[in-house]
């Protein structure tokens, strides 16, 4: 029986009302309306939805980056803010890969600084030399030359930046990683390489992955299980084989129907 | 896996950037001029050909060398009291640079600190700081500085204090906005996810980006401080009248502009050149050293 | 019948370093057909569409070849005549519906610009035609939408407005530059259906720039696949998708994720295939120099 690693119970998230000293106050917006979700150890779970579905907010809530208005987020059975091993240990165990690698890497740090600072913070490495050694090994694993260490983010290609982002997330050997739309807008060839790399890394480190995407085809390629999000609620959940073979909810069917397959003569456009 | 124990992990060398900075024409021209002024200020006693205070009414209103009636040794002429213009200008550099560097530094440090706090913590901290800045900026700067010096009494300390107390808002306003923008970036979120404390993110992620904006403002402020000092000297509120200052020379020269325009012209030219040099130096440093400007 | 758009042996280089951007590209688009221009980033597909539209940046220099619209060569025409020809016979559906509309002008004014400019319509006539056009792209309550500003509309609605604007002058040639990339999947399908319907009704020729092979398979009649500015494979959609002859085409198809096949999307393009493509390009460059 697999053990549940990350879990939400009745998660509701409102974006706070904006208060202004003199101007009119905006009402709070409800983004998530009671989400129950669980991600088991070693599992790759897809979260799919269109713009405004709340999928990015859900991802951020899983990491404790946005507070729950109602309900709770549990990690290893305990609420995020009441971890037995403390907050810093939790931060080591939960990591994130961002959609836009350019904006997620500090433009005024070298890749070396970007990668070694977290290791020193978490004492994964106790000296700069040890941190360097680990970073070198991780770079090699994600397929980047050591030379990138002396570069600034804007001196790398988009694909290389993406790999630095992945290296930063897995370097601390986390147990859970959130990937938010990380292959959208990428070329097909780059996309496939990133998906394969993620899959291998999950197996090697034994980490769980929550993979947020608007693209069901990518989810199908990567994930074991999928949550379909619409209007801040989960409309359908299940193993990918089941959901894709026999979608139960009309919205899931509409999402699948909306994907054009690279096959001619399907009459897709007419349907 | 490579044998990482042997791996030489490459470091970013500072040498290419430094070389680029030293080869940048803006840095060379701007920095060269400022360095020249610093030498003048430090060595004023040795470099000035005459005692800047020595009066000789027999040698009053002498024109610069090269014009009819010039006296050798008084290269840029004398004022109506027969004091050597060049010597007074050289000694005036001292006050100008002292005030500029100290006042701009205080304004920059205070403004950056306040701006960072307001921008990063937001909420009531930001509300208080923002209102304070708005009220501050509603006062006319020059009149406010005159008021401050009038209350504190004239002297270099008062001038420095007046400039810093007025101009910290320039830094605070810009740093606050920049910090707020930084706080929204993915790399700040990444810092949070990685477990850095608020202070760690402020110092490790936000500050390295904000500092480049501060550098630009700082060089602007250096030039501005020189001008404000000159204005205060001009209205007679800076240092005591027996210390030569550019502003004092301009004020004096204005009265005798038809008899001895050179008394007026030299400090004015020096003022313009200094402001321009500081701005060029700032732009050049940023252009050659800021990693983001290298793309 | 000769094709509406004939690009023959089009080559272009970068002004800065003289590096080739397009290498002897030829393609032909008949009236009433949709031609897919496919390739990964840097393949030159946007450059081609910009050359056709006469909006290529100063950094790109066309070194040889011709772009014929009917009997006119766009590469060699005087600038003034070219602008009139392009403005009156071509239209663009841009990638980003957010920035393609001026945020400060009403939908109605922007929609009727081309009618007043190229069809010589008065304000009243153009406005009436604008209402029809919005109705035609299935926008409800056109009367109200004409008076709105772009930020009042969703991304899908804006793309509908842009499609209506593109068809306003009944262009002979339409350039669609990744027109659905910024849209949600369900909205993308509706927009593609709309585009196909209007294209068929008007018999328009379309150059459809995209990197999405799924979209190409569903909407295009013919396909040109580019790699670093060189045509790798060209043919009807049936040929390209059913019996691809180039290894690069096959690799791209295998690398595209599919919801009906979990193994698809996990086959990165083999380095050997990329190397072979690069060699093909290098060989071409060598032959040009010799």
From TrEMBL, chain A:
**Main location group:** membrane
One Pfam family cited in the UniProt record for this chain: oligo_HPY
Q: Does the keyword Transcription apply?
A: no
Q: Which GO terms describe its molecular function?
A: ATP binding; ATP hydrolysis activity
| ABC transporter domain: residues covered | 6-256
Task: Write down any Gene Ontology CC term.
Answer: plasma membrane
Q: Does the keyword Metal-binding apply?
A: no
User: What are the record keywords, sorted?
Assistant: ATP-binding, Nucleotide-binding, Transport
Q: How does it sit in the membrane?
A: Peripheral membrane protein
Q: Name one GO biological process term.
A: transmembrane transport
Protein's cellular compartments: Cell inner membrane
Superkingdom per UniProt? Bacteria
PANTHER family xrefs: D,D-DIPEPTIDE TRANSPORT ATP-BINDING PROTEIN DDPF-RELATED, TRANSPORT ATP-BINDING PROTEIN
Q: Into which family does the record put it?
A: Belongs to the ABC transporter superfamily.
Name the chain's protein.
Peptide ABC transporter ATPase
Q: Which organism is it from?
A: Devosia limi DSM 17137
Automatic annotation (TrEMBL), chain B:
Q: Where are the transmembrane segments?
A: 27-48, 96-121, 141-166, 210-236, 256-278
> Do you know which Pfam families this protein is assigned to?
BPD_transp_1 (PF00528), OppC_N (PF12911)
The alphabetized UniProt keywords are:
Cell membrane, Membrane, Peptide transport, Protein transport, Transmembrane, Transmembrane helix, Transport
Recorded protein name is: Peptide/nickel transport system permease protein
What's the protein's topology in the membrane? Multi-pass membrane protein
Domain called ABC transmembrane type-1: residue spans: 93-282
InterPro entries per the UniProt record, alphabetical: BP-dependent_transpt_permease, MetI-like, MetI-like_sf, OppC_N
Extract one GO cellular component term from the record. Answer: plasma membrane
Where does the record say this protein resides? Cell membrane
What's a single GO BP term from this record? peptide transport
Q: Which PROSITE patterns match?
A: ABC_TM1
The protein's predominant localisation is membrane
Report the family membership.
Answer: Belongs to the binding-protein-dependent transport system permease family.
Species: Devosia limi DSM 17137
Keyword Magnesium carried by entry: no
What CDD domains does this protein's entry cite? Answer: TM_PBP2
From TrEMBL, chain C:
What GO cellular component entries does it have? plasma membrane
ABC transporter domain span: 5-253
Which GO terms fall under biological process for this protein? peptide transport
What's a single GO MF annotation on this record? ATP hydrolysis activity
Main location (coarse class): membrane
For this protein, the record's InterPro entries field holds: AAA+_ATPase (IPR003593), ABC_Ni/Peptide_Import (IPR050388), ABC_transporter-like_ATP-bd (IPR003439), ABC_transporter-like_CS (IPR017871), Oligopep_ABC_C (IPR013563), P-loop_NTPase (IPR027417)
- Keyword Cell membrane assigned to the entry: answer is yes
UniProt-annotated location(s) = Cell inner membrane
- Keywords assigned by UniProt, alphabetized: ATP-binding, Cell inner membrane, Cell membrane, Membrane, Nucleotide-binding, Translocase, Transport
Q: Does the keyword Zinc apply?
A: no
Q: How does it sit in the membrane?
A: Peripheral membrane protein
Instruction: Cite the PROSITE patterns for this sequence.
Output: ABC_TRANSPORTER_1 (PS00211), ABC_TRANSPORTER_2 (PS50893)
Q: Which family does it belong to?
A: Belongs to the ABC transporter superfamily.
What name does the UniProt record give this protein? Answer: ABC transporter ATP-binding protein
Q: Which organism is it from?
A: Devosia limi DSM 17137
């Amino acid at each position: 029986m697999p053990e549940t690693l990350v879990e939400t119970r009745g998660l509701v998230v409102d974006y706070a009302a904006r208060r202004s000293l003199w101007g009119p106050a905006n009402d709070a917006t409800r983004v998530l309306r009671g989400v129950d979700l669980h991600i088991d150890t070693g599992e790759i779970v897809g979260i799919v939805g269109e713009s405004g579905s709340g999928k990015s907010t859900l991802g951020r809530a899983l990491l404790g980056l946005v507070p729950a208005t109602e309900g709770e987020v549990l990690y290893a059975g305990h609420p995020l803010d009441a971890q037995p091993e403390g907050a810093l240990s939790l931060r080591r165990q939960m990591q994130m890969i961002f959609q836009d690698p350019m904006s997620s890497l500090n433009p005024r740090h070298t890749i070396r600084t970007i990668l070694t600072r977290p290791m020193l913070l978490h004492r994964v490495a106790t000296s700069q030399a040890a941190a360097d050694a680990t970073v070198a090994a991780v770079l090699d694993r994600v397929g980047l030359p050591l030379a990138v260490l002396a570069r600034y983010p804007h001196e790398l290609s988009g694909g290389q930046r993406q790999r630095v982002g992945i290296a930063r997330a897995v370097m601390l050997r986390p147990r859970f990683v959130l990937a938010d739309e990380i292959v959208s807008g990428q070329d097909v060839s780059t996309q496939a390489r990133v998906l394969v790399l993620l899959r291998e890394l999950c197996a090697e480190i034994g980490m769980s992955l929550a993979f947020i995407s608007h693209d069901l085809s990518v989810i199908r390629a990567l994930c074991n299980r999928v949550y379909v999000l619409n209007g801040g609620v989960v409309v359908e959940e299940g193993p990918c084989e089941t959901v894709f073979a026999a979608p139960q909810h009309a919205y899931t069917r509409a999402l699948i129907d909306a994907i054009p397959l690279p096959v001619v003569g399907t009459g897709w456009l007419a349907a | 896996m490579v044998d990482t124990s042997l791996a030489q992990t490459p470091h970013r060398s500072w040498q290419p950037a430094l070389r680029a900075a030293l080869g940048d024409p803006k840095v060379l021209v701007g920095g060269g001029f400022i360095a020249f002024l610093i030498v003048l200020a430090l060595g004023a006693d040795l470099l000035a050909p005459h005692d800047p205070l020595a009066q000789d009414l027999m040698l009053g209103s002498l024109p610069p060398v090269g014009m009819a009636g010039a006296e050798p040794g008084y290269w840029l002429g004398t004022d109506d009291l027969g004091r050597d213009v060049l010597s007074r200008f050289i000694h005036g550099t001292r006050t100008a640079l002292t005030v500029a560097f100290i006042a701009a530094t205080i304004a920059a440090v205070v403004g950056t600190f306040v701006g960072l706090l307001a921008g990063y913590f937001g909420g009531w901290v930001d509300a208080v700081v923002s209102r304070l800045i708005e009220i501050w900026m509603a006062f006319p700067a020059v009149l406010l500085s005159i008021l401050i010096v009038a209350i504190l009494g004239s002297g270099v300390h008062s001038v420095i204090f007046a400039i810093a107390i007025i101009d910290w808002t320039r830094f605070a306003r810009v740093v606050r906005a920049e910090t707020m923008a930084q706080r929204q970036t993915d790399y700040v979120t990444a810092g949070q996810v990685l477990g850095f404390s608020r202070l760690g993110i402020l110092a490790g992620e936000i500050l390295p980006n904000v500092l480049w904006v501060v550098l630009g403002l700082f060089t602007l402020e250096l030039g501005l401080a020189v001008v404000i000092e000159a204005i205060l000297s001009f209205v007679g509120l800076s240092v005591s009248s027996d210390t030569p200052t550019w502003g004092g020379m301009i004020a004096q020269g204005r009265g005798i502009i038809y008899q001895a325009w050179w008394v007026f012209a030299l400090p004015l030219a020096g003022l313009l050149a200094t402001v321009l040099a500081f701005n060029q130096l700032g732009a050049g440093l940023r252009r050659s050293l800021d990693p983001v400007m290298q793309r | 019948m000769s094709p509406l758009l004939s690009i023959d042996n089009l080559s272009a280089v970068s002004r800065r370093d003289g590096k080739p951007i397009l290498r002897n590209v030829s393609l032909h688009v008949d009236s009433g057909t949709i031609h897919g221009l496919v390739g990964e980033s840097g393949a030159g597909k946007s450059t081609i569409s910009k050359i056709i539209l006469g909006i290529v940046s100063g950094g790109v220099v066309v070194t040889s070849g011709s772009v014929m619209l009917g009997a006119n060569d766009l590469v060699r025409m005087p600038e003034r005549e070219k602008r009139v020809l392009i403005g009156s016979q071509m239209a663009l559906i841009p990638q980003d519906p957010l920035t393609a509309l001026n945020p400060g002008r009403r939908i109605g004014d922007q929609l009727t610009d081309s009618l007043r400019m190229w069809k010589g319509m008065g304000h009243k006539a153009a406005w009436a035609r604008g209402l029809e056009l919005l109705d035609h792209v299935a926008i409800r309550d056109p009367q109200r939408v004409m008076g709105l500003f772009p930020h009042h509309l969703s991304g899908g609605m804006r793309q509908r407005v842009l499609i209506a604007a593109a068809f306003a002058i009944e262009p002979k040639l339409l350039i669609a530059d990744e027109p659905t990339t910024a849209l949600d999947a369900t909205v993308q399908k509706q927009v593609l259906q709309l585009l196909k319907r209007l294209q068929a009704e008007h018999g328009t020729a379309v150059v459809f720039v995209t990197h999405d092979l799924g979209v190409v398979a569903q909407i295009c009649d013919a396909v040109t696949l580019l790699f670093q500015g060189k045509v790798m494979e060209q043919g009807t959609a049936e040929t390209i998708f059913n019996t691809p002859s180039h290894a690069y085409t096959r690799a791209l198809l295998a690398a595209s994720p599919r919801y009906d096949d979990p193994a698809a999307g996990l086959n990165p393009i083999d380095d050997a295939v990329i190397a072979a493509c690069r060699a093909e390009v290098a060989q071409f460059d060598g032959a040009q120099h010799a």
